[in-house]
Write a structure and sequence with these properties.
Number of strands: 12
Radius of gyration: 20 Å
Distance between the termini: 21 Å
Largest sheet: 10 strands, mixed
Strand content: 15-25%
Bound molecules: 1,4-dihydronicotinamide adenine dinucleotide
């Protein structure tokens, strides 16, 4: 099998450290990936004067698939978020984030198995903000029939393909009657096409309470953009934190795989970041390539990496965020040793 070219965006903060570790692990797994490295985020500004240069977008358009490290969003400096721009410009409308209890990572719950499906292109992320008059500012929550309908269908289709049993929508349609009202009406319409999958709704505040009491009640969560963002971190907290939750941003033409966490400026450069969430995102990417391009070699590599990190965590080989003392590169080295023994 020939090498598959994939775009790699190391990103900012801890991004380059965890991207390096991920590259090493993938290489040891035998997956034939040729990285096409491009910049985005603050690290792109110096060279290109923008957070999401056209050369980066063009590379993803050409190769269709990217693995992305976290990008810092400069606050109030006139630059938009590279992450939000990327999702909008490539129409990566579905974010999917599997949140599962992991062997070897002890938390309050041992039975979490939730997939978050987040609408990625609109809501309060539409960027429509303005000053109405001095001292009065406004942010517009945008919902369109097209986006609500396609994410609902995508969520149900995903649930069916993965043999999941239930889709739950969290919303606030009691207050945002028109926008969240549209979101749930499209989810209800989609649910009628999938009678094999149970459908339920919670007002988000009550839903959060139920979720932290008994996460085993939930299966697939279908959420608008901001709720999806918040719930992703909340659910990460149930399984050990941001270091163990991967993700993918999927559109009809392109896919960008990235961890849920951000660039963690508080620990950048210290070489203590956990690379596992990005490694798990890379595993999702290898499986995606296996499914969409028939690359069984990618599936084998993905299985090896998963086995390797399960062994590592069960043996107590962990980074600091999970209660261990391994540095970023040391954790990668342990995974590589485990892979070589498989
Ligand atoms: P964050 O996720 O970067 O950090 C939150 C906390 O989790 C910090 O204490 C950090 O040290 C810790 N943490 C995160 N990832 C970790 C890892 N892999 N290993 C160990 N500890 C980890 O969230 P924050 O601080 O709100 O955002 C920082 C920057 O990242 C902001 O500019 C934000 O806009 C950006 N961001 C980018 C995302 C992306 O590129 N997709 C997603 C979320 C935030």
């Amino acid at each position: 099998m020939s090498a598959r070219k994939v775009v790699l965006i190391p990103g900012d903060g801890i991004g380059p450290e965890i991207a390096e570790a991920t590259k090493d692990v993938i290489s040891a797994s035998g997956a034939k990936i040729e990285w096409v490295i491009r910049r985005a985020g603050v690290s792109a500004i110096e060279k290109y004067r923008e957070v999401l240069p056209e050369v980066t977008l063009d590379a993803i358009r050409e190769h269709k698939v990217a693995l992305k490290g976290p990008c810092t969003t400069p606050i109030g400096e006139g630059f938009s978020s590279a992450n939000v721009e990327l999702r909008k410009k490539l129409d990566l409308y579905a974010a999917v984030r599997p949140v599962r209890s992991i062997e070897g990572v002890r938390t309050r719950f041992s039975d979490v198995n939730i997939v978050i499906v987040r609408e990625n292109t609109e809501g309060l992320y539409s960027g429509v903000e303005n000053t109405v008059s001095p001292g009065v500012v406004m942010s517009m929550k945008v919902a369109t029939e097209r986006a609500c309908e396609r994410i609902a269908r995508w969520g149900f289709e995903y649930a069916r393909k993965r043999d999941r049993k239930k889709v739950t929508v969290f919303h606030k349609a009691n207050i945002m009657k028109i926008t969240d009202g549209l979101f749930i009406s499209k989810a209800r319409e989609a649910s009628e096409q999938y009678p094999d999958i149970e459908y339920e709704e919670y007002i988000i505040d009550a839903g959060c309470m139920r979720l932290v009491q008994d996460p085993g009640m939930f299966d697939t969560l279908l959420l608008e953009n901001l709720y999806g963002d918040v719930m992703s971190d909340l659910c990460a907290g149930l399984v050990g934190g941001l270091g163990v939750v991967p993700g993918a941003n999927i559109g009809n033409e392109y896919s960008v795989f990235e961890a849920v966490h951000g660039s963690a400026p508080d620990i950048a450069g210290l070489e203590i970041a956990n690379p596992l969430a990005l490694i798990m995102s890379a595993v999702m990417m290898l499986r995606y390539l296996a499914d969409s391009e028939g690359r069984e070699d990618m599936r084998e590599a993905a299985d090896k990496i998963k086995t390797a990190y399960n062994i590592a965590l069960s043996n107590g080989d962990k980074t600091r965020d999970l209660g261990g003392n391994l540095k970023t590169a040391d954790f990668a080295r342990v995974l590589i040793q485990n892979i070589l023994k498989i």
